[in-house]
Amino acid sequence: MGYEAAMNRPNVNRKRSVVVSKKRTSVSLEDSFWASLQAIVRMENTTIEHYIEKIERKRETPNLSSNLRIAVLEYFQQIAARSLTAGTADQPAASSNAKLHDNHNQLTEKVAAYWGRAGSQNQQLVD
Predict the structure, then answer these.
(1) Which InterPro entries match (predicted)?
(2) pLDDT tens digit sequence for 1-23
(3) Bridge partner residues of 16 (DSSP)
(4) End-to-end CA distance of the chain
(5) Reduced to 3 states, what is the DSSP secondary structure of residue 54?
């Protein structure tokens, strides 16, 4: 299959170059994961490179791409779990949307705080 045909396929695994910890590296992810990663960094008000650095510091396997897929999945699982436990299904739509927005803001703050703590702990280990 040629390059142009591959570019038109949905969810093809694409390799992209990123700078992680001041080193250029390649990461291969499917389109859905790249889109999800971009959504996360917008919600977290950070950059893809910074987010990937945080994932890399906590890496549990030698494969960065696998760790990114797991991180994206876990991020959205946390959002889903929080929205389910918030009990939004029993409330009217407007109230439900407001509560979901509040829950999402709280989750965003918790995730940012978590990454801040993880980053500072890892920095102390490096120093």
Answers:
(1) RHH_dom, RHH_sf
(2) 554 554 566 678 889 999 888 89
(3) 27
(4) 49
(5) helix
The larger pLDDT score, comparing residue 37 to residue 109, is at 37
Q: Are 120 and 112 in contact (CB under 8 A)?
A: no
CATH code for the domain of 118: 1.10.3990
Q: What three-state secondary structure class fits 47?
A: coil
Compute the average pLDDT of residues 75-100: 69
Element containing residue 7 per DSSP (H, E): helix 3-8
Do 34 and 13 form a contact (C-beta atoms < 8 A)? Answer: no
- The CB density around residue 118, as the number of other CB atoms within 10 Å, is 14
By CB neighbour count within 10 A (0-12 exposed, 13-18 middle, 19+ buried), where does 7 fall? exposed
Q: Which residue has the tokens 């971009």?
A: 38
Instruction: Provide the 8-state DSSP code for 12.
Output: -
- Pick from 43, 39, 20, 42: which is nearest to 31 by CA? 39
For residues 100 and 88, give the distance between their C-alpha atoms in angstroms, rounded to a whole number.
7
Return d(Cα 63, Cα 61) in angstroms, integer: 5
Domain count, the chain: 1
